[in-house]
Amino acid sequence: MPDPSPHPQPKPSPRFAHRIANGLRQRLLHGALWVDRYISRLPADTYINLRWPTRKPFQLPSLDLASYGGGLGDELMITPALRAVKKRNPTCHIRFHSRYPDLFRLYPFIDEIIPLKRGTLPAGARLLRYAHLAPPTRTLTHHLAEQLGLNIRHIEPEPPPIPASLQNPTEAIPSPRIVIQPGGSGWTPNKQWPIELWCDLISLLLPHAHVIEAGTAPAFGDRHFGTRFSSTAGSTSVLEFAAQIRDADLFIGQGSAGMHLAGAYGVPSIVIFGGYERPEGIGYPSILPYYIPVPCAPCWLTTPCPHALKCMHAIRPEAVAATALQSLRDRNLIPVHP
């Protein structure tokens, strides 16, 4: 006679159960980001009150925060929101998880800095993000602040307070000093102005100013430009990098950490946006933008450009050099030609 009892079903392995749970979390997150992208296109106050009809995040007694993006610029864009949280709710304990703790622990409106590494972010922390909102309807800084329930007015990053004892490694170089940042994060290859155009630009600038390459890695290999060119790329701390930008007479770069530091310190800046993103998405008043509105712009594309970076090649070194030199002349940093 057959056994009427059902055969016991094998239990799913812990690894299989984890994959199922993680898949469900990813689906829920994707859905939440899709909804957020849709409603964030409403006016800022409408969006904030719709998402948080009662208590807003900035009204909480404490906040655990981190930037979803991995770059210094992504974290700098959060500082206006943190500044506003402390102004609106002075007793809020702000705990910021940063990849650049040496710089962010100097801010007076951040109560606690925790170095951010893989696996160190607590489950309840808020990740402030903007990639799902691209192209943005307001500045990225506005969108980041709105994720804390704030509609802010001042979008420039808070200037990093650099200790007086820290020495800018290029402070002995005579003025005018133009700091350039040809490279940036590895988020997308479509922010990169071609290196050969950078070389042409440097050659046009050197008769009139000293040019300093800054950043995380040298971009020009064994090329030599003469004694008025120097590079500290890859050899400075994050604080020394910030000091170089602060003390520059002009900054030239792409959408990068240098652009955000220049915006914080009010340093006149030429930013080569190409067609990747609109300058209005950044909005710093010190920026002189080069944006090429080709039909596919703004693309926010993270894979290689299918049009061979047509928008970037359309930006000519002669035009950028003319803008740079005019900026220096307007401030009497180089002679005005008769």
Describe the structure.
The chain has 338 residues and is of the alpha/beta class. The protein has helices at residues 14-39, 44-51, 72-76, 79-88, 101-104, 140-146, 195-205, 238-246, 257-265, 310-313, 317-330, and strands at 62-67, 93-98, 112-115, 126-128, 177-181, 210-213, 229-231, 250-253, 269-274, 287-291. The protein folds into 2 domains: 16-146, no CATH class; 177-330, Rossmann fold (3-Layer(aba) Sandwich), CATH 3.40.50.2000. Helix 7 (195-205) links the parallel strand 5 and strand 6 (210-213). Helix 4 (79-88) crosses helix 6, helix 7 (195-205) packs parallel to helix 11 (317-330) and helix 8 crosses helix 9.
Please identify the structural class as seen in this structure.
alpha/beta
Oligomerization category of the chains in this entry: single chain
What gyration radius follows from the Cα positions, in whole Å?
A: 23 Å
In CATH, the architecture of the largest domain is 3-Layer(aba) Sandwich
Query: Which residues sit in consecutive blocks of at least 5 with pLDDT less than 50?
Result: none
Overall geometric form? globular
The CATH topology of the largest domain turns out to be Rossmann fold
Mean pLDDT over all positions: 91
Strand content: 5-15%
CATH C-level name of the largest domain:
Alpha Beta
Distance between the termini: 111 Å
Sheet with the most strands: spatial strand order: 7-6-5-8-9-10
Helix content: 25-40%
